[in-house]
Every structure is written in structure tokens, then in C-alpha cells.
Amino acid sequence: MIHFVILNNRQGKVRLTKWYSTYSQKERSKVIRELTGIILSRGPKLCNFVEWRGLKVVYKRYAGLYFSMCIDQDDNELETLDIIHHYVEMLDRYFLNAYYILDELLLAGELQESSRRTIARLVAAQDSLVETAREQASLLGDLVK
Amino acid sequence: MASTTSSIMDTLFQRTLEDLIKGLRLQIIGESAFISKALDEIRREIKSTDSHTKSNALQKLSYLSSLHHFDMSWAAFHVVEVMSSSRFSHKKIGYHAASLSFSDSTPVLLLITNQLRKDLTNPNNEFEVSLALECLSRIATTDLCRDLTPEIFTLLSSTKIFVRKKAIALVLRVFEKYPDAVKVCFKRLVENLDSTDPHIVSAVVGVFCELTSNDPKSYLPLAPEFYRILVDSKNNWVLIKMLKIFAKLVLLEPRLAKRIVEPVCEHMRRTGAKSLMFECVRTVVSSLSDYEEAVKLAVVKIRELLLDDDPNLKYLGLNALSIVAPKHLWAVLENKEVVIKWLSDEDPNIKRESLRLVMAMVSENNVVEICRVLVNYALKSDPEFCNEILGSILSTCSRNLYEIVNDFDWYVSLLGEMSRILHCQQGDEIENQLIDICMRVRDVRPELVRVGRDLLIDPALLSNHFLYRILSAAAWVSGEYVEFSRNPFELIEALLQPRTNLLPPSIRAIYIQSAFKVLIFCLHSYLLQRESTASSYPDTSALSELASKREMPEGSDSATFKAPSHSEQDEVFNPRVSNQSFEELSVGNGGDRTISHGQTSTPVTSENSFTYEAVVNHLNLIELALGPLTGSHDVEILERVRNLLCFIELIKGEVLESLVQKEENLNSAEMKSSKIIKLMSDAFSEELGPVSVSAQERVPIPEGLVLKENLNDLEMICGDIQLPSSISFSLVSNHYEEGVGASLPDLQSKEELEPPSEATSLLAEHRKRHGLYYLSSEKNDIVANDYPPANDPKLRDNQNNDTEDLVKLTEQLLVSKKRPNQAKPRPVVVKLDGDVVPVSAKRPGPKDDSLSGAVQEVLLGSDTRTSTSRSNPSDKSSSKRKGKEKLITDPSFELNDNLGDAEKLDHENPSSRRSKHRTHGKERRHKSPGKIREEREENGQKEKKKSSHRHARHKTRQRADVPLNVVSETPVIPDFLL
């Protein structure tokens, strides 16, 4: 399974994290520090896999962002790269909230939706819900004023 | 009033998440200051009664917590409040925060059950249902799972695909936390495998893939379903998961392999997707390696990967190759050039992987060439990889008591060469191996002494602190086996060269002690030489007698070069054979002595080397070099320097004098000093051998011996002086451990810990003085004698015959074990690798793990599992069997129960099983050395000196393994057909 997903930029600043296995807050920051160190120090044209604490980390750089996913020893690295790519394409198409897209893509550390169109539709649907709610809220806000 | 105003102000002027992020990136007051300010704001805002303000604050807090790791557990209650908001936008923030920050120990979890239930059953808004599902998949606890199982069960057959697939994925967590849910949900889950919707199938397959990887056995009955998907599905994601499932199942049920091998190859041939192709390859090499055709196809594909430019594929190709290596070494050999080529790849991961493969190829036939190649790579590599290479050479060659090394002269000089590599940091390991080999392999000692001399004599090496340990081994070897040295005087100079002051005290002490031994040897040789010229004996015979004195008790060992078949009958020393073997060596060393016939040969360079001038010069040299050290603050150094200097003082007068009366004084042997020298020389040339671990137990403790009280007193009196020298002692015991054999580490170290370490030096001192009382019962004392001698070996000699015999015995056992090894033709590497498994746990095969784990579940299930499981474990297997039989007709009928049980196994198990397995492995590892030891003891008692020990040992190992194999080969797999 996928244990966690981390996005960070070239300076090592974290942009998104999602944990499918239990890590305490302290462990999380330790893991991130350790991994970003390893990943950022690897030059281009090297392979995208790092063995790490008995697990494997598959990472890929898109523009200035590194996408890393940590998987089990016997998981398929290329498949994970595909998942990352899948996610990146989704982000590309719809750039608003990476978390909610990730929620549609992965659940409990497993890929759950392989169709990009579906994800886009689902996220859009939820956004429209949020939109209506916001309008209502602002209406209410107007009323208060 | 004031609070409402502030809350309105908050609402109107609150910063949104976007503002926060922008602010954070543009801040000028420093990130932490900015964040703590923001956190203060959030703390205020989150208490607001306005749900908008509140959720906004929570969103910001989630952001900071997730990316900057700020604790947000304090806000748990607010999270619950926001979750229960009726507005979707707020709810979403609340759920997200919950899945981010809640853990099993979050107290407010108790409060959200009803909220979750409400959201899960919301008929109008599927997105709210999905929010709850997503959140549960992260935070569900046993209680939550128990309480919400009915709702989840309903959702498993929801008409909304979007909801159903999430519910399916959630089942994974529910089963893990609350195994009883299996009874309720499993049937529905299996039904979903038949779904026509690809999303659903994909989700179910994902769940089964995870479940199977933890406990393959329970899911064997589902094989027909899986097989259908494997053949029919067109979805690569699903196929990859299917292959993973089968890779596990096939190991349990060989008949399955026959069925799937064709479809797997078909996929491998046809697919364009590299990920699927690679998964096929991996499945074949790890689980279907008995099918020649499939493996061949896989190897072709691996080769494609290896030659690809994409580093990812290269890496994976190497990876796959290392899986296939143990069973099909030809696959690796076929790709040998490529593999070696990638040793110089720029990617450290690829290099490491190919190093692993190269090491897998090593056999006794090619070890020399491969090591040559590797050392060359090591010379060119960066320090880190260089050491990785050296480390793997060392561990591979020393595996199973140097199993693959036939030519020890070569190996020893390789060790010497490795020490000289610039980045070498393997000092400890090389030191251990040098001494270990020195103890175990008699024939290699002359070469060892030569290598040691080369290392000692090079002043440049003294500046590299990584080499100190190696140098200490070299010094010890040179001192202990000085009779093989071509020029002992040169050794004295090397051991006392000025740059030795760079060494740490513990090692310097070894240097000095070795110089002492060398000096004794020189003086003794000098006297013998003079004596023999005087009495017109051929000088060489005396010298060679000296040189071969050691061989005496052990008989034919030194003759192994000539006649490995010599055994018991060689008990009587045969000087001719021994001399011949020496001759060969000295020829090899290019000794400047001309040898015309086998009678006259000693390793010592020339007849004239032990001249009076040389002796006197070196006595002076020693006095000069060590004089300043009499003021040393290190106990070890001080002690040894004093010994040496006093000794010189003792004999110097007479030696000088003896020259004057050279001609007339024929009975110089009766001089006091030569007696002393003779005595010392005898003591030093006494063979030091490894000691059996049981040696100590067999020595009776003398009556009335009170060790502890006395030592306690000592500690009280001078508790703080002895600290510095304890280092050197630990060094000694390390070595001892090595010397006895690497197979007994645990027991050993435990014993070594027994004496209070702070008191060691004093203890040693004390023992030395009152040796009479200690020697027969203190094993560690014997240890200390090995290297460097902490007390006078002579003393030990007298009282310790008993132990001494033992020492010799074990030593012989070790050596005799070695010899058939050297002589017998070696099997191919595949078998070799099998041999290695019980000893080195270096590459644990994951498949073995799960296999035996699963088997253990069946066979040993009843004792461990009962604790938490509510079901009766004894009827577990029978019900499972029943279920499997019925499955052929109706896959989902009985299945429910039987898998329910199995499921439980699975879930309370992962950890317990793993730990059990581990301890089991340990037991097994322990077992074999244990047996060996027993056997060794037995042999010792029977005084069987040349037993076919190696053979017997091999048998024990097998014996230890056999029951295991039986266990793993007879899993109770019921009859079932695809």
C-alpha cells in the first residue's frame, strides 16, 4: 500500500502531505526532513526509487515540485510512478485544491479511481456545492450587516 | 457585548487560508514569528460562535499542522463542531482536519460516532457520505468500526458507484481494526468482484491485494475468482494487483502455478505497459521460477530493461535479476557484462544493486577474478561506495568460515591490499579476519607475516586512523609468528619507528609487546646459532627445529601443502615434510637463501643475520626508542615498556660479556641470561589457539575460591584509576570472540560482560600477581593471553595444562574442519547460497516469510491466536477446509464464515506472527551453533582429534534444518480445483 504522499519544492519546503499509515506528528516531520534530504540530493537522470527503512520511496520531479510516495517493498514502482503522473495530470487540469483531488484518487492507501474524467467531475461537483454554500453564507453575511 | 463585537470584527477582517499562505511566503518578520502570530489569531478565531469564522480558522490550522507540523490536538473539539456543521463547505474542512489530526487516542472520537452515522446514511448528498468514508479510512478505531459496520455493510451494495467503491476501500481498515466485521461484510465484498463496473472491481482487487499480502492462505479459496479476472481484465491497474495476489497464492498451492503461468506469459508478451510487464517479470522470477520457459521469457525481458536508457528500468532490471539469482544463476551470468558495467553507473542505487548481483555470482572458481575487478572499482569509486564494495567482499569471502576461499595466500594478500586503499574504513573487519585466519589456517601464517610486515614497515599508513586496527593485527601476527619472518630485525625497527607515537595507547602496547616477542626470538636464534657453530652442528637444523617447534603437537598440519591426506598417523612429527613445505614458501618469498636440497631451509634470511653487532644495535635501539615511554600515563604501555627494558637490562651485561669470551666459552647455554632467554622463548612460542566456549564449564572451580569479595575490595580501594585501560581489554575480548568462531557471538558476549569492566586493568594486575589462584577458573584470563598477553604466559603454562589441552584440541578441530573444505571439490553456487541461508540473514526472502508465517498459522495456530480471537481456533482449519471444498460449487456461500475466521487471524496477527517468525529464525540460528558446540565438546571428550568434523557439522546443520523444511513443505492444503 501507499504509506504516505509528500509534495515538496526544490528548497525542501513541504507543499502537501497525506498519511495513510499512522505516524505521530513528530515522526512525520522527521520522515519529511529525512526524505527531502535524500531526494533533493539526488541528481537528475538518476532512477526515481529510493530504498528507505525497509520501504521504497518513489519520487518524481515535475517542474519545481517533487512528488514522493512511499510504498511497500513488494509494490510496483512503475505503477506508483504512474499514479504520481496520474495525479499530476489531474492537478494540471484542475488546479485548485490538491487535497480533495487526492482524496478522490487514493483511499486507505490504495488507488481508487483510475479515470481522470471522473475525478474532475467529482471534484467539480463538490466545488459547486461549496460555491452554493459560500453564496448562502455571504447572503447571510449581508443580512447581518 | 465586547466578545460579540470582537467576533464580528473577526468575521469581517478574518484572514482566509489564501491570505495566510500569501502572507507566509511574503513575510519579513521570520517564518516562525509569523506563524506564531497566525496561531494566536487562529486560537482566538476558532472559539468564535460564527461557524464561518470557526471553519476558516480550522482550515488555516490544518494547513499549518500539515505542512509545518504544528500540533493541533488541542483543537480536537472544535474539529468535531465543524464536522457537524450543516453546511457542506464547513463539513468538508472539519472532516479534513479530523483525518489529519485524529489518532486512536484522541478522546473526542467517542463523540463523533453519531455524526458519522448520520453522514454515512445521508440519502440526499453522496458527497457527505464520501466525506465520512474518507475520514473513516484514516481515523476509524475499533469502536467506530464496530458501531458503524451495519452502515458500511449497506454502502457496500450502494447503487452509487462513487460511494460503493469508497466503502469497499474502507473495508480494509475496518477488517484490520474490527475483525468481526468480516462475518458481516465479507460476502458482499466478494460479490463485488463480479461487478460489471470497472471502478468497483478495481477497488475490490486493491483490498484483496492488501489482505492477501498479509495472509495469503486464507484467500486461496478465492483463486477461481481471481483467475477469471486475471484472464479477462483489460485494466492494467487491476492486472498488476492480480499478479501480486497470485505471486503470494502460488507459493502456497503449486497447482495454481501451472494454471496461471500461461496467462502471465501472455500478458508479459503482449502488454505495452512497462509497469505491467515488470510485474509479470517479477511474478515469474519470484513465484514461478520452476517454469523454465516462463523464466527464459522473463530473462529476455529483464535484459531489455537492463539495456534501456531509463535509469528506472535499469534499476528494476537489476532488481529482478537479483530475485532470480539464487535459483537461476545462469540468468545473471548471461548478463554479467552489463551488470559489471553498471558498477560504474552514476546512480548509487544502481551501483549498489549491481554490486549485490556481482556478489551473488561469486563462487570459489571466480572469486579471485571478481575480487580483482571489484578492488579496481573500489579504487575508482567515491568513499562511500568504495567501502560498500570492500565490505561486501569481506563478508562474502568470510561467509561460512571462508567457504569460497581456496587460496588463502591470495586472500591474505588481498586483505593487505584492501587496507592500503585510500578510502578503506573496514579496519575492524579486516583486523578480525586477519587474526581469525591466522588462528584457523596454519599454512597461511608465513604469508600473513609477510603481509603484516609490509603494512608495519610503511610509515605512511600510520597517519590513517582507519588502519590502526589492521596495524594492531599485523603487529600481533608479526610478534606471534616471528619465526616465519625473513628479517626479524627489520620488524623490530618497524615496530618501534618514531611515527608509532601516532597510535592510540592500546595499539601501541601491542606494538611494544610484539617487539618484545621479536627480540626474544632474535636473541634465542642468536644463541642457538652460536651454540651450534661452536659445537659444529649444522646451524640450520637448530633453527628449523625452532621454527617447527610449533608444529610438533599438531602433527601434520604444516604438511597440508604436500599431503592433505595425512591424518592420525602423522601424529609423530615428521621434520622432513615440514621442512619441505617451508622451503616452498621461502622460495615463493624469494628468500635470498639458496636451497639445494630439502634438508636445509629456514625462513630466516641468512645465516649471518643474527650477528653480535645486530643484536647489540637493536638492544640499543629498543632502549633508545622506549626510554621516553617509561613515563607514559597509559598503564598498558608503561607495563610493557618496563617489562621489555628490565629484560634488556637483565641480559645485556652477559650478552656483551659472552662475546669477549666467545671462543672459549662453549657452554654459553648454561649462562643465566641464556636460560632466561630460552625460557621466555619457549613461553612465547607456545601455540595460542581458540578456546572452546565450553572450556570454562569443564574446569572445576577450586574449593574455597572467593572471587567476588576480593574484587569488591579492590574496587573500593582504587575505583577510579583503571578506567583508561579498559579499552584495550575490550579489544582483547573482541578478538577472542573472533578467534573462537563467529558462530557463538551471543553467549560469548554475555560472558564477557560479567566481570566489572571498570576493574579490568586492576583485575589483570591482580591476577598476574596471584596467578595461582585465578588461572584455573577464569576463562577470560586465557582470553587475555591471546593477544596481547596480559600476564606471563609461562605461569599459565604450569597450572593450566588442562585448559591448554583443550585449546589445542579445539584448535585442531577447527583446522581439521578446514581441510576437507579446502580439498574437496566445490559445488555450484546455487547450492552454496542455500548453504548460506541459515548463517547469514542478509537477504531475507520475503516470500519465505509469508510462506512459513502462513504455515505456522495453520500448524501452530492454536497456541498464539486464541488470546484475542473469539472463535474456536481448533475448528478453524476444519471449517476452512470445508469451505474450500464447497467453494467449487458456490464460492460465496460458506466462505463467509470460514474466511471470517481466517480474517481474524490475519488481523490480530501481522505483528505477532512476524515476531514469532523472527524468534523462530533466531532459535534456528542459535540451534546450529549450539549443536556444533555440543558436538565439539563430544569430540573433545572422546579425544578424537581428526574426526570428520566438518562433515558432521554439516550434518547437524542439515538436521537442524530438516524439521523446518518438513514443516514448510507439508501445509495442509485441501483438495481444490480451479
Describe this protein's structure.
The complex is a heterodimer of chains A (145) and B (978). By secondary structure, chain A is an alpha+beta fold. Chain A has 4 helices and 7 strands, in the order E-E-H-E-E-E-H-H-E-E-H. Chain A has a 5-stranded antiparallel beta sheet with strand order 2-1-5-4-3. In chain A, strands 6-7 form a two-stranded antiparallel sheet. The longest helix of chain A has 29 residues, at 116-144. With 978 residues, chain B is mainly α. Helices cover 70% and strands 0% of the residues of chain B. Chain B is built from 49 helices and no strands. The longest helix of chain B has 48 residues, at 895-942. The radius of gyration of chain B is 37 Å and the shape is elongated. Chain B starts with a helix and ends in a 9-residue tail after the last helix. At the A-B interface, strand 2, helix 1, strand 3, helix 2 and helix 3 of A face helix 4, helix 6, helix 8, helix 10 and helix 12 of B.
Defining traits:
heterodimer, A: 145 residues, two-stranded antiparallel ribbon, disordered C terminus, B: 978 residues, mainly alpha, 70% helix
Adjacency order of strands in the biggest sheet of chain A? 2-1-5-4-3
Work out the strand percent of chain B.
Answer: under 5%
- Please, what is the average pLDDT of chain A? 77
Biggest chain contact: A-B, 56 and 59 residues
Which consecutive residue ranges of chain B, at least 5 long each, have pLDDT under 50? 536-608, 722-759, 771-978
The number of helices of chain B is: 49
Per DSSP E runs of 2 or more residues, the count of β-strands of chain A stands at: 7
Q: What does the largest sheet of chain A look like? A: 5 strands, antiparallel
Sheet with most strands of chain B: none
* Derived structural class of chain B: mainly alpha
Our estimate of the beta-strand percent of chain A is 25-35%
Gap between N and C termini of chain B: 76 Å
Rg of chain A is 18 Å
What kind of assembly state do the chains in view correspond to? heterodimer
What pattern of helices and strands is seen along the backbone of chain A?
Answer: EEHEEEHHEEH
Tell me, what's the shape of chain B? Answer: elongated
